[in-house]
């Protein structure tokens, strides 16, 4: 490997990390250096990559330790047979970059992943060393997210949880046949075993923290994973069911979806075109329905077309409502929270405001319109003090009436 300076390495390894979508920084414990000790904080606002639940933008230095890899996964641009320029940081180079960027107010944390070099254990040791040095040698109190390696020694993976706010282990593909075909060197059983071990370690850490205040925090932001969408034959229904299983079995904070992107010198077993980005968006919406709106996986799947794919022209919640019209219309002034959450166009905040306000007033259609972007989308599914949809809910062409119109955005619109 040719000798590269730090700037050249950063250009290569930051670009190589862009395919990893799971870099959110929410859910961790609050730490700061306001008392004059340590360096960094998990509470400030930043300039870039990820967003906390309250809307704050959190900036992360998102890089790979190296883009060299001994594996040959067909979908990965950094696979062993790929003709890309390679680079590698040392652990201390990553530490110094993180500190230098933080002191210049460029970042608030680190997202670190890596290709596999020499062996899984060796690579995992290097990742852990970066986090250890930041925490112990420099008392860094900012956010750290480490990508762990499933077949590394469990003790090394456990050490990652001691230093990182969040850890993640990618399941890579939604189905076992897809993983065997496109990443034959990886094992679904091994990946899920590592995730189960991490779940147990996180639970043990929380129990210890409850009993002993001096117990160290262990991955306070939990664990997450990522699935590639569109590289294999998995349908949206397959992906929704897989995501639900992962949430239930491993208590994940997030499942991320990354639309497959064609890569240079691609393998012949890969599709020639990337899936529509809207497919990735619809999967995130379906994920939200299960996590925040009380939908069961089978209900989300029932919104899919006969081929198992979610509609691209309308969101999954509207698709479900159009298929199950017997649940509508819903009386805004009397319905339960669970019923209101199923109304297309009503989000969790709007529903909570309705529940708070209707104790003191009766809602009209205009009142509901103030809580949503498009009242036209909601009207067929609700009853208010001055509105009843009569036969509108049962119209055969209802989808055409409420489907969002396509429009070209204007770059310099007022």
UniProtKB/TrEMBL annotation:
InterPro entries: Aldolase_TIM (IPR013785), DNA_rSAM_put (IPR023874), Elp3/MiaA/NifB-like_rSAM (IPR006638), Endo/Exo/Phosphatase_dom_1 (IPR051675), rSAM (IPR007197), rSAM_sf (IPR058240), RuvA_2-like (IPR010994). Residues 23-32 have a biased composition (Polar residues). SUPFAM superfamilies: Radical SAM enzymes, RuvA domain 2-like. It holds the Pfam family Radical_SAM. Residues 59-286 form the Elp3/MiaA/NifB-like radical SAM core domain. Residues 23-42 are annotated as: Disordered. NCBIfam families: rSAM_link_UDG. This is DNA modification/repair radical SAM protein. It comes from Sphingomonas rosea.
